[in-house]
């Protein structure tokens, strides 16, 4: 009995392999649970209330009012700059009423920020002129390159049902990776544990067969 127990005792390398496997299993489960509760579930809820439509640009205009943005120029360096507001009203295939185009879900959540009135918010630069040039470039893009050509846009009933967005932040690829990598981590951990146990079992059997022959 003592010999059987000694035979099944894991070596230091096997013990480390088992610990690694269990660590990967725990990491996979915890990350899947954390991402599911904190990120994946809200993302699916947002997608559940939305859909796609065909949009056509009605106008491209800059408002006379300028809005503020905050730029960062270092760890302890922050400041405020201003940019013009670009509006792109569009007509959608799901409604006859015009809708305001936005970049993504992040802009649709800016209820308490006046910038939700803008279709495009440029990366905040220290120079106001640079911000204006970025907005003007985007204005030319919508006027000259897109024009009256229809394009795919998206809407979300949970955020701003009367507005549409150009792209989704939580697309299928991001959701797939959010689910895929925790599962892969879990399966790799299970595989390491199973292979270590099988290798140990085969080694014990081989040792037993060797002793019987002698």
What does this structure look like?
- The chain is of the alpha+beta class and 214 residues long.
- The protein has two domains: 52-169, no CATH class; 171-209.
- It is 50% helix and 25% strand.
- It is built from five helices and seven strands.
- It has helices at residues 2-7, 12-48, 105-108, 128-146, 172-213; strands at residues 50-57, 61-74, 77-87, 89-92, 95-102, 151-156, 164-165.
- The strands form two sheets. A five-stranded mixed sheet has the order 6-1-4-5-7. The protein has a two-stranded antiparallel ribbon with strand order 2-3.
- Helix 2 packs antiparallel against helix 5 (172-213).
- It is elongated.
- It starts with a helix and ends with a helix.
What's this entry about, in short?
This protein folds into 2 domains: 52-169, no CATH class; 171-209.
Q: Please give the alpha-carbon distance between the first and last residues.
A: 20 Å
Gyration radius, to the nearest Å?
29 Å
Shape verdict: elongated
Sequence stretches where pLDDT stays below 50 over 5 or more residues: none
Count the strands?
7
What is the domain tally? 2
Strand ordering within the main sheet: 6-1-4-5-7
What structural class should be given to the helix and strand makeup? alpha+beta
Q: What is the average of the pLDDT values?
A: 79
The amount of helix comes to 40-55%
Contiguous helical run count: 5
Order of helices and strands: HHEEEEEHHEEH
Tell me the major beta sheet: 5 strands, mixed
- Chain oligomer state: single chain
Strand content: 15-25%
């Amino acid at each position: 009995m003592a010999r059987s127990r000694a035979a099944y005792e894991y070596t230091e390398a096997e013990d480390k392999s088992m610990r690694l496997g269990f660590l990967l299993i725990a990491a996979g489960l915890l990350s899947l649970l954390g991402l599911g509760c904190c990120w994946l579930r809200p993302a699916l809820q947002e997608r559940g209330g939305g859909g796609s439509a065909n949009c056509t640009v009605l106008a491209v205009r800059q408002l006379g009012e300028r809005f503020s943005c905050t730029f960062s120029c270092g760890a302890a360096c922050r400041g405020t700059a201003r940019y013009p507001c670009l509006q792109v009203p569009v007509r959608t295939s799901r409604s006859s009423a015009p809708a305001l185009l936005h970049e993504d879900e992040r802009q649709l959540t800016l209820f308490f920020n006046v910038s939700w009135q803008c279709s495009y918010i440029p990366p905040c630069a220290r120079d106001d002129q640079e911000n204006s040039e970025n907005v003007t470039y985007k204005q030319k893009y919508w006027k000259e390159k897109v024009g009256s050509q229809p394009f795919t846009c998206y809407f979300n009933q949970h955020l701003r049902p009367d507005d549409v967005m150009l792209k989704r932040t939580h697309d299928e690829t991001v959701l797939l990776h959010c689910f895929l990598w925790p599962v892969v981590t879990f399966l790799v951990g299970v595989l390491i544990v199973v292979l270590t146990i099988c290798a140990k079992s085969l080694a014990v059997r081989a040792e037993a067969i060797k002793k019987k022959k002698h």
